[in-house]
């Protein structure tokens, strides 16, 4: 029986989660070891399971897929010795499959044998026409092994009439709608692709004589790789022992990179579009302090993702910054909750209030987002129980009022607090002294768009805030999802 994952901790259940992180290496000895390190650095992008595929000229393709953290699986020498070779790709995932129990066959990378040899593929994003593609492929004889939308790519490649695997991948991805960053491998090539809108990230690095593809730059750092450049929207790179070839298989389109990568998903030590994620989050706090000032004694982050914005808010407002809430760094999301009494402790298992700082103070809490609002209420109660005089929430993103269909775990729209309540109603619901979100214009200014959001031509995908979906989510519309009415 495959290992079953414990339920997510209540603190994590009220956060948006990226589905995946991807990483690939070619041209180094024991490439799978580099991939394991890279996946460890990308663990924040997917904590449910991980997988690695490698190729060795003598032993061929080998793979390992496991539930749980990279550190608990891919650090064992006995396992890594089964993944030899100078070419390897890997994947960490968090499923969004409607609360279904995870199964090992859904864990990527996926592998397929073609007439011209084997290929493995790992995908970050979400295919918005996957249901329609799956029905079509099954009717034509394809047999699916997983519930993942990513498997559609393998079947489309298998049915392509193109002459080699990179061309078959191009052919397959032209049929795909939605968001995708992909790393793939053949016996001799490492391949990276971004969708035409560039919704999800992918970067190119170099380590010694080898090459690296990664979701984020922070994973290059852990293996001592040099950042070369971002893979551009709509670009495919094919890498072998001779170097990097760039192809443009898609019709050109204006980039719509996910703006929430700046707010929450990416690690603060990564670089996006030439900008430090940490500095962007700091600037979000600055903008938030300008837009929503409040008279208070302390600015406290909700750790850890609220920390850079809280520091920026403190610098701009002049209100002292303090670690009023301390996070238990050893309390992972797979913590076993053995009794009802422990379960009822909820957020307190992960966060604790620094009572000596909080008591008698008017406190500004800075968090990255409000999704369902359940965690915000619990944190507010903890702060009041510690003796705070007032509690003010400042949120480093606009209200999350629409679900994401491009590779982020988002509740149904009616479960999003901002979809059913105004800001004032949310303040009353959370029972705090004040609640303010950064405006969408303020967020755009923080990421470098000086004039704010251009409503006619936005620079980012901000659908979770605006309801402006750059790619129509056709599968969801077929199931009854209603797009935002034209204004």
Helix fraction by DSSP (H/I, runs of at least 4)? 25-40%
Number of strands: 25
How would you name the oligomeric state of the polypeptide chains in this document? Answer: single chain
Fraction of residues in β-strands: 25-35%
CATH architecture of the largest domain: 4-Layer Sandwich
Instruction: Quickly count the domains.
Output: 2
What structural class do you assign from the helix and strand content?
A: alpha+beta
- CATH topology of the largest domain: the name is Glutamine Phosphoribosylpyrophosphate, subunit 1, domain 1
Radius of gyration, whole Å: 23 Å
Backbone shape: globular
- Give a short account of the largest sheet: 7 strands, antiparallel
Low-confidence stretches: 1-12, 333-344
Mean pLDDT: 91
The strands making up the biggest β-sheet line up spatially as 4-3-5-2-11-10-12
Q: What is the count of helical runs?
A: 17
CATH superfamily descriptor of the largest domain: Aminohydrolase, N-terminal nucleophile (Ntn) domain
First-to-last CA distance: 53 Å
CATH class category of the largest domain: Alpha Beta
């Amino acid at each position: 029986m495959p290992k079953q994952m414990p339920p997510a901790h209540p603190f994590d259940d009220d956060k948006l989660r990226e589905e995946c992180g991807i990483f690939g290496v070619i041209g180094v000895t024991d490439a799978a070891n580099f991939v394991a390190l890279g996946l460890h650095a990308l663990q924040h992008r997917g904590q449910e399971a991980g997988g690695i595929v490698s190729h060795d000229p003598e032993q061929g393709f080998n793979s390992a897929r496991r539930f749980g953290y990279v550190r608990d699986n891919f650090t064992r020498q006995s396992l890594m010795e089964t993944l030899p070779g100078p070419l390897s790709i890997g994947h960490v995932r968090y499923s969004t499959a409607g609360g279904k129990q995870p199964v090992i066959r859904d864990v990527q990378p996926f592998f397929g044998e073609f007439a011209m040899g084997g290929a493995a593929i790992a995908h970050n994003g979400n295919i918005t026409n996957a249901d329609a593609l799956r029905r079509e492929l099954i009717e034509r004889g394809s047999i699916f092994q997983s519930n993942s939308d990513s498997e559609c790519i393998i079947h489309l490649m298998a049915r392509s009439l193109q002459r080699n695997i990179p061309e078959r991948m191009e052919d397959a991805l032209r049929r795909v709608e939605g968001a995708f960053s992909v790393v793939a491998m053949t016996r001799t090539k490492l391949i990276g692709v971004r969708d035409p809108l560039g919704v999800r990230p992918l970067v190119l690095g170099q380590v010694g004589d080898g090459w690296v593809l990664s979701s984020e730059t922070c994973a290059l750092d852990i293996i001592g790789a040099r950042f070369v450049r971002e893979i551009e929207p709509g670009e495919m790179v094919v890498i072998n022992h001779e170097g990097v070839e760039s192809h443009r298989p898609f019709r050109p389109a204006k980039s719509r990179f996910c703006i929430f990568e700046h707010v929450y998903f990416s690690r603060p030590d990564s670089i996006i579009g030439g900008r430090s994620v940490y500095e962007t989050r700091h600037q979000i706090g600055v903008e938030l302090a300008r837009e929503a000032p409040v008279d208070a004694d302390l600015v406290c982050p909700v750790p850890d993702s609220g920390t850079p914005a809280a520091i920026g808010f403190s610098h701009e407002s002049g209100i002292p910054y303090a670690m009023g809430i301390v996070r238990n760094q050893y309390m992972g999301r797979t913590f076993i909750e053995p009794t009802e009494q422990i379960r009822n402790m909820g957020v307190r298992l992960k966060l604790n209030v620094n009572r000596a700082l909080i008591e008698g103070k008017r406190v500004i809490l800075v968090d990255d987002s409000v999704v369902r609002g359940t965690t915000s209420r619990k944190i507010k109660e903890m702060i009041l129980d510690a003796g705070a005089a007032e509690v003010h929430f400042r949120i480093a993103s606009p209200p999350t009022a629409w679900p994401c269909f491009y590779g982020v775990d988002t509740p149904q729209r009616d479960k999003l607090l901002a979809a059913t309540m105004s800001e004032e109603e949310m303040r009353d619901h959370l029972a705090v002294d004040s609640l303010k979100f950064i405006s969408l214009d303020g967020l755009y200014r923080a990421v470098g768009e000086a004039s704010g959001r251009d409503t006619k031509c936005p620079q980012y995908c901000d659908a979770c805030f605006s309801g402006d979906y750059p790619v129509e989510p056709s599968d969801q519309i077929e199931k009854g999802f209603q797009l935002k009415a034209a204004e």
